[in-house]
Each structure stands twice: as C-alpha cells, then as structure tokens.
Amino acid sequence: MADAEQRLIPVRNPRTGAVDFQLKVSPPEEVAAKAARLRANQKAWAARTTAERVAVMRRWLEAVSRKAQALAEADAVDTGGCHTSYLQGFITMGNIGGWIEDAEAALDRALYEGPSRSMPTVEVRSQLVPYPLVGIISPWNAPMMLALLDAVPALFAGSAVLLKPSEVTPRFVEPLFETVAEVPELAAVFDHVMGDGRTGQDLIANADLVCFTGSVPTGRKVAVACAERLIPCFLELGGKDPAIVTASADLDRAATSVLRGAVHATGQVCFSVERIYVDASAHDDFVALLVEKAGKVRLNSDDPRAGHLHPFTFAPQAEIVASHVADAVAKGARVLTGGQVETIGGGLYMRPTVIVDVAHDMTIMRDETFGPILPVMRYQTIDEAVALANDTAFGLTASVIAGSEEEALPIARRVNAGAVFIQDTFLTFGKNRTVGTHSFGWSGLGGSRTGPESILRFVRRKALMTQHGPVADILDDHHLGKPGQPGGAKR
Ligand code: TXE
Fold first, then answer.
1. Which of 11, 147, 159, 243 could anchor a disulfide with 138, C-beta 3.0 to 4.6 Å?
2. CA distance 132 to 188
3. Residue 410 is part of which domain span?
4. Closest C-alpha among 118, 57, 117, 119 to residue 93
5. 5 by DSSP, 3-state: which?
6. Ligand 1 centre and the CA of 33: distance in Å?
C-alpha cells in the first residue's frame, strides 16, 4: 500500500500535550498477512518441547535485559513518566524469567497418563495443543506490562502471538520488538499490528483466542466479536476496588497503605483503591492522617524521575475524573485536598484528592474513576462495611486493614473480589505465577491471568484413549457397562 493511503493516528505526549508521534495504522490486509505468517510458523514452535521453547525465551530475556533502559524510557514517554515505567525492564524480565522457571512444571501438571477411573480397561493420555494464534488487545495504562502479561505465557505454551497495543501509548513497541528481532525463532511467532478499535476488530477476525484488557464497554464489543466467531476470549476489565479500615486498625499504617493504593500511577491502575470505608469511630482521625500524607505527595511535572504522580496518560481521562468529582460535590461531598485538574507544561495533573461525605448515589462511588481519588465513607457495623464493599458491579480486588489478621480474615472472606489484600493494599503483583484468581462481576471474564492457569488458558487439553479390554457390542444389552459398575448405566 502506498504511504499516501496509510491511515495515521496522531499521538499526544502526556507531559507536553503536543502531538509528537504519528502512529501508522496497519491496514486489514497487513493484519491478515501477519496473522497468516505467524500461524504458519507456529507449527514449528508448537512442535518444540517446552524445554526448547524455554531455551529460546532465555535468549530473549538476555536481549530484554540489554535493552531494559530503553524500554523503560519509551514506556515513560508513553505514560508521562509513571514510577512503574522505570521498572518496566525489570518487570518484563521478571515475567519472562518467572515463566522460564515455571512453564514446564505448570504444563506437566495438567497432563494425565493412566487408567480411566470410570472405564478401567481404558487408558488415557492427555496431550496439550496450543491455540495457534493468540490475539492480544492491550490498554494505555502500564502499556508494556499489560501487553506482555498475556503474551509471555501464551508464547511459552506454544502459541504464536499478534499484539495490538493501545493507540494512546505506542512508543514502547519499537524497542520491545527490537529485542524480539534479536531472537529469530521468537520473531517468527511474535509480532504486532498498530491501530485503534478497527484494528482490534481486524485482529479478532484473524485470531484463535483473544486476550483483552481495557474498559467494560469495549470489553463487551470484544466479547461479542469473539462470540460471533466462537473463539474464546479472556477479559480483564475495570474495577472500583474498596478498602475497609476497622476501628482497631493502626490508622497510620492504614492511611499510608490506602494512599499508595489509591494514587500510585495517578490512580490509573485497574486494581487501584477507589472506595474507602472506615469505622465511624476512626473516620475523622483516619481522614486527618490521609490529608496530611496526601499533602506530601509531589507531582513529577519538573522531572519525570522526581515526584510521585505523573500526568494523566490519556487526556480524556482527566475529564472523566473531574466529572466524577463534580458530581460528588454537586450531591453534597466535600473535597478536602486536591480535586482540580492542573495544566502544567501542557500535561494534565491532579493531586491526591481526599473526598468525604460521599454516598453510593454518586458516580465516584459507582463507576471506575481511574484517577488519584480517595473518597472516604464512614460505616457503623462490619455488616454495613461488607454490604457497601459488595454494592458494586465490579469485583477485581479489595483490601481489609484491621487490628490483626485474625480480625481482618473473616471480613475479607465476605467481600466479593478476585483478590482481597489483608493488612495492606495493592498486593496484586504477589499473585503472578503463584495463584490464580477469578474476577467478580464486570471486572473480568474467563480463566485467570495469574497462577498456573494463566499458561493453561492457551492450550486445549486433548485425550488419547486406548481400549485395552474387549470392545463393547451394541447387541449386548449391557454394552454401556453393567448397572452399578464403573461406567455402568444407572437404573
Ligand atoms: O480502553 P478501551 P481505554 C478503563 C479505564 C479507562 C477506560 C478507557 O476506566 O478510562 O477503560 O481506557 C482497543 N474492538 N481501563 O481507552 O477503549 C483499543 O484500541 C477491539 C481499565 O484504554 O477499552 C485499546 O487497544 N478493540 C483497565 C484497547 O481496546 C478495541 C485498563 C483498550 O481500549 C475496540 C485500561 C473495539 N471495538 C483502561 N475499541 C484495566 N482493567 O486495567 C477499542 N479497542
């Protein structure tokens, strides 16, 4: 296709507000051609043993470690200089390195070889067959991490991967795929296409399985498109994650933890704390501590590596956050600190925003805000706290901070969320390859993206079944087995 015909998407720099990047959209025929290339190459990738794939990924890990700095810099330009951006090199290395250690065992544990328990003369052998082409549609927050979270286990499982990153944060893609190009066996099965939702739909039209991270409305469209094709999709959507602080909690510790959990990455994290419920007797002291600590948080407007909060990565997000604050104020809430979108050097910033006198008829307590907001609401009883925490369409994570783990655990067990953090917030990274979780409500759909399950999502389990006994005769009344025997017909 001639350059003149190529669709371009202007990309805004979150720190300056200037358009300093033009994204070249992959036309549908390019998406189809890349998908066909990956699909053809995937056969050889799947035919390798897991140990052989691990050896290839080890070389990729070395390439990533040589480029860790450039990857972090690109991710930081994309996001506006998020703390997590500067850790991207290490996070990616941890992701690849972790699966190097765990992939073989996780896949082996899914295999069965032995007699059938219901038909003892039948021997069963399982075989894991990777989905040929996994399509990944990723969002603008933590752009590199969320692009690779699903891609890496899919590659270890033996799938090929075609990634479509968010059109808002495309700069990390070039250095990332330079590392991929250093490992030809990997480049044969891992590629990317660029564009917006249209390209996302083109990707779905070519994939055998889709992993999506992003908003609920777009997640619905992705699910519908996958349903039309009858291919599996795994959705990681938003959250409105609650934190409960009980009367006996160490309030200083609680305020420190809740503040970080709510404002890290300017609150642009799916598992950010977005609602805080505090026992009425501790409410005022807790709020005072929160305001004091929030006042010490600095913007990184002067230097992306200094300060704590970066600008909004996606300019429209600032409007969403401001509208939630305005709705709360209009309904009687009070903003104690922050609350204003500040334009500094072209970037849009907001300081930690502590809001009290909030209620559940306010948008800020119902919809994902995705900003540095700390709406605090008092409760009278633990039953009320649990009811408020569960009064949501979402259920990604939650936190309970009490006087002791013994006090917090029974509360945590009653909260509807895929992971509940006890005596702290923001512990999602602790799950990684250790434990799988299922999101509640609108926060997700499909198997877990953490724990051993996360790699098993990319394989179909096939059974090879050998009959070692006599074959059943249709003319025999008991050909389905004798009543009461294993496998026997029930009368
Ligand atoms: O999401 P979108 P965005 C929430 C957060 C934020 C909102 C919007 O509240 O304000 O989502 O963020 C691609 N078919 N979260 O704009 O629109 C799009 O190109 C196929 C929660 O990032 O969902 C991008 O690559 N694909 C969250 C990806 O979908 C389509 C993470 C995500 O875009 C498409 C980020 C379509 N019709 C935002 N339309 C979390 N859970 O972490 C768009 N896309």
1. 147
2. 13
3. 241-432
4. 57
5. helix
6. 25
The residue whose CA has the least distance to atom 42 of ligand 1 is 270
DSSP characters for 306-330?
SSSBPPPSSHHHHHHHHHHHHHHHH
Distance in angstroms (rounded) separating the CA atoms of residues 482 and 112: 26
Last residue of one domain, picked from the residues 384, 409, 432: 432
**d(Cα 21, Cα 74) in Å, to the nearest integer?**
12
* Predicted TM-score (pTM) of this structure: 0.95
In ligand 1, which atom is closest to the CA atom of 204? 20
DSSP state of 151: H
Q: Whose alpha carbon is nearest atom 36 of ligand 1?
A: 197
Q: Are residues 166 and 227 in the same domain?
A: yes
Residue 263 and residue 213 share a domain: no
Q: Which atom of ligand 1 is nearest to the CA of 195?
A: 19
Nearest CA to ligand 1 atom 10: 317
- Residue 157 C-alpha to ligand 1 middle, in angstroms? 26
Question: What is the CA(218)–ligand 1 centre distance, in A?
Answer: 6
The confidence score (pLDDT) of residue 6 equals: 85
Helices 173-181 & 68-79 angle (0-180, nearest 10): 160
Cα gap 356→278, rounded to integer Å: 11
- Locate the ligand 1 atom nearest the alpha carbon of residue 196 and give its number: 19
Task: Looking at the structure, tell me whether residues 304 and 355 fall in a common domain.
Answer: yes
C-alpha to C-alpha distance for 203 and 135, rounded to whole angstroms: 6
Q: State the pLDDT confidence band at 66, using cuts at 50, 70 and 90.
A: very high
Residue closest to 279 by CA, chosen among 426, 391, 402: 402
- Residue 478 pLDDT level (bands cut at 50, 70, 90): confident
Whether residues 110 and 215 fall in one domain: yes
Q: Is residue 45 part of a domain?
A: yes
pLDDT at residue number 83: 86
Q: Which of 270, 274, 368, 453 is catalytic?
A: 270
Q: Which of 30, 73, 185, 236 is catalytic?
A: 236
For residue 47, the CA-to-ligand 1 centroid distance in Å is 34
Query: Which residue's alpha carbon is at the smallest distance from atom 34 of ligand 1?
Result: 197
- Is 384 catalytic? The answer is no
Q: Nearest-CA neighbor of 18 among 29, 7, 10, 26?
A: 10
Rounded mean pLDDT, 4-28: 94
Residue list, ligand 1 pocket, CB within 6 Å: 137-141, 164, 166-167, 196-197, 200-201, 213-215, 218, 221-222, 236-238, 270, 317, 320, 368, 370
Torsion (CA) 77, 83, 85, 86 in degrees, nearest 10: 100
* Separation CA 191–CA 180 (nearest Å): 9
Q: Secondary structure of the chain: what % helix, strand, coil (to 5)?
A: 45, 20, 35
Task: Show the 3-state SS of 371-386.
Answer: CCEEEEEEECCHHHHH
